[in-house]
Give the backbone structure.
Amino acid sequence: MNKHHDLTGTDQQITLRGPAELADALPYMMGFHPTDSIVLVALHGSSGRFGGRLRLGIPPSPGEWGPVAAQLADCLIQGCRRRGAGPDGVVAFLCREPAEGESGQQVMERLRPLAQRLRTACGSLDVPVYEALCISDGRLWSYCCPDARCCPPDGTPLALPGTSVMAAAAAYAGIRVRGSLRDMEQRYAAPAAPEAQDQVHAFDAAGAAITSRILDVRGRQEVAEETVTLARRLLERMADTPRGDDDSGADAADDRLVSADEAAAVILGLQDRETRDRAAQWMEGAEAAPALRVWRVLSRRCVPPYTEHAAAPLTLAGWVSWSLGDEPGARVALGLALQADPEYVFARLLHQACNEGLDPEAVRHCLRQARDAPPQVPPATSEDARTRARRRRPKLLRASTAKPEGSGSRARRGRPTPGRPGNGTTAARARGRAVRRAAQRGTRSGR
């Protein structure tokens, strides 16, 4: 494959020739330098126009490479076909820096079976892989080109940053590369001790106070209102303290605006799907930027053993980023959300929609409708329900023999997982699971 064309958002057409220029274009296509990543890019038409693209971290175990390759190929190709014409070909990139004492060429050889599995997976869907490249240690290798004259065994040096045709065109179009994927993920990383230990204590205290409350209808409503009110207070605090997003100290400054107790209360409250959806309504206008800062802070506060709780704030951060037009930032946050909880449905749906290049306006429209809808009559409290049940008991007994909603396996799934009191980590995980299960009302499907 000698020529590829991509549109940079202007009427200018960029022609890329050969593996070196393809590798140079990758950060501009993604918006960042992908590290430790598999990237698949769809090609359309005889000119090889770039289409959809997918990125996933390289699985650490070679035993996972086959299933992951099949899943990635299916997701990219079938996604393109659902939107219209399927791709005519695919370009695959494997990006990984050498470990200590390892060379880039050794990395390339170690990843060769993964490249082969990607080529086989795409070929099984009748889409060829035109080029498969390994990028490591400032050099690139082609898994498809056998000609040592253009693809030498020791690799080809990458172009110096900012010196290529793609770099010039991107600068003209206002496209920028925001560092490496590792740098972007670091914005959501939890702190080290002793800050992490303080946050664990706050989670323990908040979990003990919340668990019993959200098992009751009235208590769940109260927790939801308290969560939204506190999150709104944090949003306003961020809005009153404007900071530049590119400032290296901005995240640390934002962290100082939120106490450990406040973070724990909001994070645990966001485990409830309806509460999370209400928070997702802060997605545009003056609310969006400070809301994104809040979700980043809360994501960083999800320290072990509460890392699974990060799925909710990470998904909200990804959603707001996508709503603001920051697709690279959205993909990073949503990818981290799925690492925290691979079954988190809201993150999976947003991640797929973002990767397929869909318009976020459809999601915004649904959330606006929910926000502007008249308030519903709150459900009866447990005391009112018991009073009505006593009055209607003869009729109910005659009419149905079905089990109550709280019985059977669903009720068992809502109970806290037992843990030994002397084991702080086990007890914390048990409390975390209890909060998550109770907030999700015994089902994972509404996440």
The chain is about 55% helix and 10% strand. The first helix runs from residue 18 to 30. The radius of gyration is 25 Å. The first strand starts at residue 4 and ends at 7.
